[in-house]
From TrEMBL:
This is Phosphoesterase. One of its GO terms (molecular function) is metal ion binding. Keywords: Metal-binding. Pfam families: Metallophos_2. Its cofactor is a divalent metal cation. Signal peptide: none annotated. One of its GO terms (cellular component) is cytoplasm. Its EC number is 3.1.4.-. It is an enzyme of class 3 (hydrolase). Residues 1-199 form the Calcineurin-like phosphoesterase domain.
Length: 240
């Protein structure tokens, strides 16, 4: 059996569709989404409706929470005035352009998910088990050491950082699939993870998928979203 893990789509329908096509090619039987469907990109409703239409089990991300509950902040890490400007522009635009029915759907998403495949227990959340907006980078898994020691699962799925990684912690596997629609690791292709269960063994890989970035940039430029969001997509990283 194979499952796909996606996260951080951020209103990028072109990236999502390309990733979903690749997942279909890989013959994955299930998809799990770790949240942040919206924000920064120009297609919040299209992304939500695509995920809804496929009945993909989906976790609430910090951006989904901010849009769905009309929060004044996305809960993102903001280190300077430029990042504050980005955050305010994106959040206000997305709140104004996400339909009420889709906001209601976002409000109904769970903050965590427990599932089991082929006898392997999986825990999924957006940021960390401690907070929806906590960043757990590959070098920082010790930050959730207490949780890792006590949670009875084999695999832990985390998103939010937009940096993909696969890491072992004792007998547990920690997996971040990276970002479908807003990569930050310098690779502008969409990212997702594939987990294969076979004969009691678990095999994991990160898969990158090219998509029509120019189309998304053109759509961004038709809105009042910051033009720099398009440049970030082309570069595959944030602008400090």
């Amino acid at each position: 059996m194979k499952i796909a893990v996606i996260s951080d789509i951020h209103s990028n329908i072109e990236a999502l569709n390309s990733v979903l096509n690749k997942i279909q090619e890989e013959n994955c039987q299930q998809i799990i989404c770790l949240g942040d469907l919206v924000g920064y990109g120009p297609h919040p409703n299209e992304v939500i409706e695509r995920i809804k239409g496929l009945n993909i089990p989906t976790i609430l991300g910090n951006y989904d929470e901010a849009v769905g509950f009309y929060l004044p902040s996305c809960g993102c890490k903001i280190d300077n005035e430029w990042q504050k400007k980005q955050s305010e522009n994106s959040l206000k635009w997305t709140q104004n352009h996400t339909s009420e029915i889709n906001k209601k759907w976002l409000r109904g998403l769970p903050e965590e998910l427990f599932v089991e495949y082929n006898g392997k227990k999986i825990y999924a959340t957006h940021g960390s088990p401690n907070a929806i907006n906590e960043y757990i980078y590959e070098s920082e898994v010790e930050k959730i050491k207490e949780v890792l020691e006590n949670i009875d699962v084999d695999i832990i799925l985390l998103g939010h950082t937009h940096f993909p990684y696969i890491k072992k912690y004792k007998d547990k596997l920690i997996l971040n699939p990276g970002s479908v629609g807003k990569p930050k690791d310098g690779d502008n292709r969409g990212s997702f993870a594939q987990i294969q269960f076979e004969n009691g063994q678990v095999t994991v890989q990160i898969i990158r998928v090219s998509y029509d970035i120019d189309k998304v940039v053109a759509d961004i430029n038709k809105t009042s979203l910051l033009k720099e969001f398009g440049l970030m997509l082309k570069l595959g990283k944030v602008l400090e």
